[in-house]
Amino acid sequence: MLSKKTDPAPPRRSGNVLFALLMRMHFYVGLLVGPFILVAALSGIVYVLTPSVESWLYRDALTASTQNAPQPLARQIETAQLAAGQTMLPAVVRPAPDADSTTRVMFADPTLGPSEHRAIFIDPATLEVKGDMTVYGTSGILPFRTAIDQFHRSLLLGDVGRLYSELAASWLWIIALLGLVLWVARRKALHGASPRMATRRRHATVGAFAVVGLLFFSATGLTWSQWAGGNIGELRQAWGWGTPSVSTVLEAPDDAASHNSHAHHDIHADHGMSSAPQAGEYASPAGFDQALEAARNAGLLADRMQIEAPAGEGRAWRVSEIDRHWPTQVDQVALDPHGMQVLEQTDFTTFPLAAKLTRWGVDLHMGVLFGLINQLVLALFAAALVFLIVWGYRMWWQRIKGTTVNQAQTMTALFIMLPLSAQLGLIAIMVCLGVALPVLGGSLLIIAVIDAIRWAVSKKKTQKV
Fold it and tell me: How do residues 173-219 score in pLDDT, each as one tens digit?
């Protein structure tokens, strides 16, 4: 009769079993999702540390030749139109924020991607064309940082690639919280001089101190994600936490049909992207000067401003503050195209707290809210995350070296040992998380299937011994 090899008896108390299950989940999920989080962390470090590089790389386009009095925006726009071979008005104009900087005249271009513009950089005093390049997003980042941003977000693979960053953001907060629970429960046991214990001690200690930053990365990253981000946006709107923005649709009680027919042209202010009418059809270059003056008179005093012409008949001008540093200046006004009267205005100081937190969270994540200090702190947390992943894989290697996997090392074996009520509770939690964070839900199902196969294989081998 063949003797049967018996594994060490796993803990039988429900609390101990649940704790062991959480420990296994932290380990195995980290092992499988770790490469995606590592790529996001490394590319994030590069992104937040490149503003100075970008300023140097494109210094000729960003810097004015003289500090003389600026020409009217109308003349700067006409110069940009000539340089770009455009008869259309620019979609967006960003006047020079100071005497050392250039004005950005940004044209819509159907050959460019979403949120991209062709920007002509004009010396506001001499009207010299200083640069011609593609800029991206509300922040107006230039090609070098755009490439890094797209790699960080999607590995340069478009919407398909965005699954990688959403997978990383979806799991990061769970892994971080599980790690914190394990550190609190076992910190007194993290002693010993063995290489494996030393690695575990460093991993646990750094993870405990970095958990706030890791949760921040996860939460703000999810707001940009493709699937979970949509759910978060709907939840914010349902709870009245949406970011206020002025409407550029002119009210026309006697022409409601016309009002509705143009509704699809209005673009959310966060993108700052509107279609551009032909010069002189609904607006003219001189209107940009008038709109800027009206906005200043309405109390928009930020150095960094953005002006958008009416996108068509029945549309208003929109002028926005775009200074995302502290204190944040993001007020907006909608202006009547016939007399430049203020039709609607938003004031950041009156935003709901949730909207303010969202704005600050996004700007912190991008490293712009507190400038260089913000960037260095983000890089420090991201570097800590890189070391945590490296140490995690080192612990895995130290663990499997010379050992064999048994049933007790799988999550499935521990899950089976839980009472039915605990099993149903865990399933309910995971289903809810899967609905709210679809990429997490799909990956969790894959992980569960892989773990169940490992459990079944190890059980079958054990029975044959």
Answer: 999 999 999 999 988 888 777 888 889 999 999 999 999 999 999 99
pLDDT in tens, 80-107: 999 999 999 999 999 999 999 999 999 9
CB contact at 8 A, 139 and 368: yes
Alpha helices in 337-419 (DSSP H): 353-366, 371-400, 411-417
Helix (H, G, I), strand (E, B) or coil at 174: helix
Local structure of residue 318 (DSSP, 8 states): E
Q: Which residue type sits at 85?
A: G
Helices and strands of the chain, counted as H and E runs: 15, 8
Contacts of 246 (CB under 8 A, 6+ apart): 269, 318, 332, 333, 334, 343, 344, 345, 346
Contact 207, 180 (CB under 8 A): yes
List the beta strands (DSSP E) in 215-359.
305-308, 317-321, 332-335, 342-346
With CA atoms as reference, report the closest residue to 382 among 9, 156, 44.
44
Please name which of 311, 283, 116, 137 lies closest in space to residue 224, comparing C-alpha atoms. 137
CB within 8 A of 251, min separation 6: which ones? 259
Tokens standing for 66? 């003289």
The DSSP H or E segment spanning 92 is strand 92-94
The backbone region for 155, taken as left when phi is positive above 0, alpha when psi lies in -120 to 50, beta otherwise, is: left
- Residues 6 or more apart whose CB falls under 8 angstroms from that of 16 comprise none
